[in-house]
Design brief:
With 154 residues, this protein is α/β, with parallel strands linked by helices. It is built from four helices and six strands; from the N terminus they run E-H-E-E-E-H-E-H-E-H. A hairpin with a 2-residue loop joins strand 3 (45-53) and strand 4 (56-57). Helix 1 crosses helix 4.
Length: 154
C-alpha cells in the first residue's frame, strides 16, 4: 500500500516523531507541506498531520488539503497537542467530506509544548510523545493499512 502523510511539524518536532514511528511499520512518504507539493492521486491512502495550533490543525496543512486532496481518496488524521485537543481534526474531516473522502481514523497524543505562556512554566506534556505513544501510533497505522487494503479489495 502506497501512503503519503502530509504534515507540518515545528517547535519540538512532536508530530514528526510520531510519523517516523508510523513509518517504521509501513511504506510511507512524509511530505512537509511547507516544502513540497505532491501528486496525491498516486497514493492509495493519504494522511494529514499537524500539531494543534490555536485549537486546530496548522493552517498550511488545511490549505494543502483544500488544494491537493483528490476526490474520494481514503484519508486519516494524526495530531499532537500540549494542553487540549481543541477541535482536533474537525476542519480536516469537513474537507474530506467535501471531497467525498472516507475517513479511516484519527490518532492523537500529547506532545511537549513550550508555546506562549507554557514557556514561562518550562512547558507542559514533558516527555511526550513517549514510547507508549509511539507504540500506539505504530498500531494505529497498522490498522489504517488493514482498513485501506481491505477497502481496495472490494
Amino acid at each position: 500500500m502506497k501512503t503519503a502523510i502530509c504534515y507540518y511539524s515545528r517547535h519540538h518536532g512532536n508530530t514528526l516523531k510520531v510519523l517516523q514511528a508510523m513509518a517504521d511499520v509501513g511504506d510511507i512518504d512524509l511530505i512537509d507541506v511547507t516544502k513540497q507539493k505532491a501528486a496525491l492521486a498516486d497514493y492509495d491512502c493519504v494522511g494529514f498531520a499537524s500539531g494543534i495550533y490555536g485549537f486546530e490543525f496548522q493552517k498550511a496543512v488545511v490549505e494543502f488539503a483544500h488544494q491537493q486532496l483528490p476526490q474520494s481518496k481514503p484519508v486519516f488524521f494524526v495530531y499532537t497537542y500540549g494542553g487540549a485537543k481543541g477541535n482536533g481534526a474537525k476542519t480536516m474531516a469537513e474537507i474530506a467530506a467535501e471531497k467525498n473522502c472516507p475517513v479511516l481514523g484519527e490518532f492523537s497524543c500529547k506532545g511537549f509544548d513550550t508555546f506562549g505562556p507554557f514557556k514561562l512554566v518550562g512547558g507542559i506534556a514533558k516527555g511526550h510523545p513517549n514510547e507508549k505513544d509511539m507504540e500506539n501510533a505504530r498500531r494505529f497505522y497498522q490498522e489504517i493499512q488493514a482498513a485501506c487494503e481491505g477497502g481496495m479489495k472490494r
